[in-house]
Structure formats: structure tokens, C-alpha cells
Design brief:
The chain is α/β, with parallel strands linked by helices. The protein folds into 4 domains: 3-44; 55-144 and 223-273 and 285-497, Glycosidases (TIM Barrel), CATH 3.20.20; 145-219 and 274-284, Oligo-1,6-glucosidase, Domain 2 (Oligo-1,6-glucosidase, domain 2, Alpha-Beta Complex); 518-599, Golgi alpha-mannosidase II (Immunoglobulin-like, Sandwich), CATH 2.60.40. Helix content is 27%, strand content 14%. The chain has helices at residues 3-10, 18-22, 33-46, 72-77, 79-85, 120-132, 151-156, 223-238, 292-304, 326-331, 347-350, 357-369, 388-392, 398-411, 440-445, 487-491, 497-510, 512-516, and strands at 52-56, 89-92, 136-141, 170-171, 197-200, 205-208, 243-246, 316-319, 343-346, 377-379, 415-419, 518-522, 529-535, 541-547, 553-555, 569-574, 587-589, 594-599. An 8-stranded parallel barrel has the order 1-2-3-7-8-9-10-11. β8 (316-319), α10 (326-331) and β9 form a beta-alpha-beta unit. It is globular and about 80 Å long. The two termini are 33 Å apart. The structure holds 1-deoxynojirimycin. 1-deoxynojirimycin is lined by residues 102, 105, 142, 211, 247-248, 320, 383-384.
């Protein structure tokens, strides 16, 4: 179904701005070739600014060949669904050839497709078919490390004078002699537990791995590594991909002096053990070192010079940027004239992991005021974190809470990224027995850390066997909830989570204030209800209120100096069963209820 028909079907008022229409390549003025070409040019340049981005974990989305593992053809099969949902671009978690130790984040060939997921022809078909749905494809780009089975590492470890030796991080042990390997070079730890140094007997040195032993880190001080990755970017851009999500990008560089990281202290000032049983340390020497900035500027220059005027238009760089504060996040956009990421993920907001009004207000306000006018990328969920139910649910109102999270995601200014299955309220389903664990994080961390399988279970399409995901036994079990929590059931239910997502996304695209308007916090002293206003360039205003408590609340949004142009509102969207807010002096909200209204 085409976009305009879809909006009409939603029964929403079509208050459409040029930006919103342009975002879907539609003409804004029939018969005006000039306006049309201006709109589509703006679309090609700016498509990402208000974009709805959807992360697919290919292994878990749809299996079409009956091997129990999702594949690229499975994604192509669901493009109608994704278009109807309002998705502008898919971020594909890695589907390159890989030994699958870290389920694709250990890449053994950056310019091919893993046969488990299909062929390069399947990939090309996905890009071409997605384009027909106005959906762009973004690749996951893992530049911090490769698989230990990548030909570059096989060369590197083959001898000390191999030309690829210096592509990875090799080091002598502390006190190493001709017969004794000595101690590991320093105390750096892998994010997946234990020392980040692995002894290699053949060439008698240690190599560094921030993640698994099978994921050796590249040496980004070597210019050849830079050139190799620029070629990889070009390879995929030639195939029509619209950009990249850069994995673990803050960890490209390590302290050149190899200094130890410091032990963390508990509240009594004592060091303690982490879930892997290691002494907990910080990562000051191995994370967020400044060298990453010039690298990203270099990569971005490659993308920006790559034919920007054909679909998919601007190539977008998304960063996996877990950072300590907003000032560090602001740096990821790059200094004036030297752009880095267009959309570094704002993990300050989505991973607060606690429903605290003041913290959300502060962090959302930071995204509005401290990113120097850049576009925030909001994200609450991904394949590395327990789903929303675990991190935000209270057990009794999980559905209402998940609606509220989706509201913050789509009704705030910026681009919005969400994870497959969130739109139907899929729940975290961790393994209950160690022998069922697939993610090595769970194997190393069991039982304290059960790993990431729980958030990677198969997509729940319908109530048939295996939730319609596969005709064979799925690689991870389908959660028992699938008979009710599935796409097919929710498509028929106008109060479903899927319906909520569709309506919110439709508003984000069609309502001028919600599409690109500024965010202004309202009622700022309130510790129970988070409310804000979006101010459209055309003078329109929309208020949004989310009740963060399990009790009903009534709020007055007219106080303060936010400049509301009226004291009444026309409802655009509200939680099922909620009241229409005729007067903004007394907006009534159910427990964890949401109200969105157009100010009159
Ligand atoms: C971050 C990815 O999201 C995660 O799944 C992976 O294990 C690490 N980076 C290492 O690539």
C-alpha cells in the first residue's frame, strides 16, 4: 500500500509539511515540476533527519529456507509490513561471512554474504525491492576487530615479518624472555570477560581483543587499515546501501603508553568483582580515545563524496556511541567543516533503565539544547540489552509503559531507532538452562549474566507453529507468548501495540510540529508526569504528556513560560480508554497513560 493511502486509512488529519512529504519522495504540489524536484532533492539530502530506523537481527526475523535461521529473503518477504509500519531504513545487523562466534560481529570477509543468510544476489534483490518501498538499507560496519579467521589475521599471525603483522595489535608479555611468555602486557580486560590479551605461541606475542578471543582488534595506527575500510565502504555504497551503523566505534584506539585501567571501587572504597569474576576496572585506556575522530572524518569524507544525488541520497553514519555524557556525544558529530556521524546514538536517554521523570526531562532537554543544533538519534532497545519489559516494566503495566517509551521515542525531535519486535511488545525470554545458551556472553557469565539470547528470539509473526518464523526448529526457542503476541493478531486489534506504533509513526511523519518542531519541556517541576510541547515552523503546537506512575494523574500544562498559544487541545492520540483533554489546565492521564494533542 502506498504511503498517502496508508495515512488516509489511519484516519489521521493530513497536516502535511514539505519535509514530511519530501521524506517519502512525494510531490507537494501537483503539476509543479519545480516544487517536485526541490522536494525530491530535499528528500535525498535530508531523508535521515526525521527518519524511522528499524534494526533487524537477520538470524531472527524470518526463515525462508527451513534451516531454523532467518535469512535475507525473509526480510524481503516482509517489506510490505515494514512500509506499512512507516520504516524509512533498515539497519541490518551483520550478515557477512563469519564463524558466528559473536553471531556475525566476528567478520571473516567484509565484501560477501554469509551463505547462512543467502547470496549476494539475495542482497541485491533486497536493496532493489526495499527501494520500491522507499526503504533504505544500512549495513553494520565492524571496524574495531575482525574474526580471527579473516585472511588478514591469518596472515598477521603467521609470522612477525608478514606484511599484515602490523594490521593488528601485537605486544610482548611483561618480563617475556626467549623461553617464558611472561605476564599479559597490562590489566586491560575484554568486554566479554577476562584479560583482553591472548598469547599466540607460534609467533610468541600477545594480541589484543576488546571482545572475544576470536575478535582480534585492528591497529588503527596503520594507514593501510584505513585504506582497507574505505574500500569496504565504497564496495557497499556501490551496491546502493544508504549508510552504516559503526559497531563499537569508540573502542578503535587504546592508550599508546599501554597504561593500566583503574580498579572501580564500591561504596566502601573497596575494589570488587564483576559478573565474570574479574576485578571490576574502568576502561579509560581502551575506550573513547581521541584518535577515533580523525578516522571518522576520513570515512565520512569518503561517503560524502559518493554520488549523493541518486537514491538512496545522503549516506548516513550511525554510531554505536555509549558515552559518559552529552558533551562527549556532541563531539561525535564532528567539528565545523569536519563532519563525523550524522546520527551518533544518544544512549543517555534510552538506557536510563529507570522510569524517573526528572532524569528523562534532563536528558531529553540535553538532546535538544546541548548537541549544537544537530539531530539526536533516540534509541531505547537493541540486540545487546534486555528488551523494554525488563528494563522499564513494573510487571503489572508493561504494555502501558511500553506505549509510553514509544511515545518518547517518536514524539521527541530527531530520528528514531527501534528494534524488531518492540512494535508488538515482544518480551525478553532468557534461557533457563546453561546448556541452552547460545551467546558466549551467557556461557562465560552464567548464572549472573545469562547473555543476550533473551532479546534475540524469533520474530512473532502469527499463531502458527514457531510463530510463523520457520518451518523447522528455530535457532532460539520462540517465546510461549507468541500465540497472542504476534503481528497477525495485533493487525486486527485497534488497541494493540502495533497499532500504537503505526499511529505514532504516522503522526511523526504527517504532523508538522511532531515531524521537526522544537522540543520545549512543560510543567518542569512535576515529578510524576513528563510533558513537553513540539513547536512547528508553521506556528502549530502539539503537547505530549506521559504519566510515569501507576496512579491516575491530572496535570495543568498551561503554567510556566513555554508560550502555549491556547489553553485547549484537540486529541491526536491517547492511550486506549484515555480521556480527551479539552482543557490543557486539567489533562487527565490513566496509570502510565499518554496524551498527545494539538493546541488550540
Ligand atoms: C557491539 C555489538 O552490538 C555487539 O553485539 C557485539 O558483540 C560487540 N559490539 C562486538 O562487536
Amino acid at each position: 500500500m502506498h504511503w498517502t493511502k496508508r495515512m488516509a486509512a489511519c484516519g489521521l488529519a493530513l497536516i502535511v509539511g514539505v519535509g514530511a512529504l519530501a521524506a517519502h519522495g512525494q510531490n507537494t504540489s501537483e503539476g509543479s515540476a519545480q516544487t517536485s524536484s526541490a522536494a525530491s532533492k530535499s528528500n535525498l539530502e535530508n531523508w535521515w533527519k526525521n527518519a524511522v530506523l528499524y534494526e533487524i537481527y537477520p538470524r531472527s526475523f524470518q526463515d525462508t529456507n527451513g534451516d531454523g535461521i532467518g535469512d535475507l529473503n525473509g526480510i524481503t518477504e516482509h517489506l510490505d509490513y515494514l512500509e506499512k509500519l512507516g520504516v524509512d531504513a533498515i539497519w541490518l545487523s551483520p550478515c557477512y561471512p563469519s564463524p558466528q562466534v559473536d553471531f556475525g560481529y566476528d567478520i571473516s570477509d567484509y565484501e560477501a554474504i554469509d551463505p547462512q543468510y543467502g547470496t549476494m544476489a539475495d542482497f541485491d534483490r533486497l536493496v532493489a525491492e526495499a527501494k520500491k518501498h522507499q526503504i533504505r538499507i544500512l549495513m553494520d560496519m565492524v571496524m574495531n576487530h575482525s574474526s580471527d579467521k579473516h585472511k588478514w589475521f591469518l596472515e598477521s599471525r603467521s609470522s612477525k615479518d608478514n606484511p599484515y603483522r602490523d594490521w593488528y595489535m601485537w605486544h610482548d608479555g611483561k618480563g617475556q624472555t626467549a623461553t617464558d611468555k611472561g605476564e599479559v602486557p597490562n590489566n586491560w580486560q575484554s568486554d566479554f570477560g577476562h584479560s583482553a590479551w591472548e598469547w599466540d605461541e607460534k609467533t610468541r606475542q600477545y594480541y589484543y581483543h576488546k571482545f572475544y578471543i576470536q575478535q582480534p582488534d585492528f591497529n588503527w595506527n596503520n594507514p593501510k587499515v584505513h585504506e582497507a575500510f574505505k574500500d569496504i565502504l565504497r564496495f557497499w555504497m556501490k551496491k546502493g546501501v544508504a549508510g552504516f551503523r559503526f559497531d563499537a566505534i569508540t573502542t578503535l584506539f587504546e592508550d599508546p603508553e599501554m597504561r593500566d585501567d583503574e580498579a572501580l571501587k564500591d561504596k566502601d572504597g573497596k575494589s570488587y568483582l564483576n559478573s565474570y569474576g574479574d576485578v571490576a576496572i574502568n576502561d579509560t585506556m581502551t575506550n573513547n580515545l581521541p584518535g577515533v575522530h580523525p578516522v571518522m572524518q576520513e570515512m565520512r569524507a569518503v561517503a560524502d563524496s559518493f554520488k549523493p544525488d541518486v537514491f538512496p541520497g545522503t549516506r548516513v553514519f550511525i554510531g554505536e556511541t555509549y558515552l559518559p555524557n552529552i558533551a562527549e556525544l556532541a563531539k561525535q558529530y564532528g567539528p565545523p567543516g569536519k563532519p563525523e556521524f550524522q546520527l551518533p546514538m544518544d544512549t543517555q536517554i534510552g538506557f536510563i533503565n529507570k522510569l524517573d521523570v526528572q532524569t528523562f526531562r534532563e536528558k531529553l532537554n540535553d538532546a535538544e539544547t546541548k548537541l549544537e543544533g544537530n539531530i539526536p538519534l533516540l534509541v531505547f532497545d537493541n540486540h545487546d540489552n534486555a528488551r523494554l519489559d525488563v528494563r522499564y516494566g513494573d510487571g503489572a503495566h508493561n504494555t502501558e509503559i511500553e506505549r509510553m517509551i514509544a511515545t518518547m521515542l517518536f514524539a521527541s525531535r530527531g530520528a528514531s531507532l527501534f528494534y524488531y519486535g518492540d512494535e508488538i511488545g515482544m518480551k525478553t525470554t532468557p534461557p533457563t538452562r546453561k546448556e541452552d545458551v547460545k551467546d558466549p556472553v551467557g556461557l562465560t557469565g552464567w548464572p549472573k549474566d545469562k547473555g543476550r539470547d533473551g532479546e534475540r528470539t524469533p520474530m512473532q509473526w502469527n499463531a502458527t507453529t514457531n510463530a510463523g518464523f520457520s518451518k523447522n526448529t528455530p535457532w532460539l526457542p520462540v517465546p510461549s507468548t507468541y500465540s497472542t503476541v504476534n503481528v497477525s493478531a495485533q493487525e486486527k486489534d485497534h488497541d494493540s501495540m502495533l497499532d500504537w506504533y503505526r499511529k505514532l509513526i504516522a503522526l511523526k511523519k504527517t504532523n508538522v510540529a511532531l515531524a521537526a518542531g522544537d522540543n520545549v519541556m512543560l510543567d518542569e517541576a512535576n515529578t510524576k508526569v513528563l510533558s513537553w510541547m513540539r513547536k512547528g515552523a508553521d506556528g502549530s503546537q502539539v503537547v505530549v504528556a506521559c504519566n510515569f506512575t501507576a496512579e491516575p494523574q491530572t496535570v495543568n500544562l498551561t503554567g510556566g513560560g513555554a508560550g502555549l498559544k491556547g489553553s485547549h487541545a484537540k486529541t491526536l492520540l491517547k492511550s486506549p480508554g484515555g480521556s480527551d483533554a479539552v482543557s490543557l489546565e486539567a489533562v487527565q492521564l490513566q496509570p502510565f497513560g499518554v496524551y498527545i494533542g494539538d493546541v488550540r
